[in-house]
Prior knowledge:
Layout: H1 3-22, H2 28-45, H3 47-68
Helix pairs in contact: 1-2, 1-3, 2-3
Amino acid sequence: MSRRRYRRARMIVELTTHLIRHDGSLTHREAHCLIECAHKAMSSISPEMSRDFATRVAPSLERIIFERWPAEEAVFVSAREMVN
């Protein structure tokens, strides 16, 4: 994989992680939508990145969401849902 693609993937993961951890106005549902959007962005980089995201990064982001919103139930986001 090229360095440019790797940097792009890393930026997507870091930005998503930062927003979920630190954005005070973010809702539980929006956090799940961010994960879905990040996964779609990784898919556009490469199928390998998409698999890595699904198996390694997404579970980590889900743990962060659970730590931030422990009382909330899991949300299943539709691929067609958009959050502004």
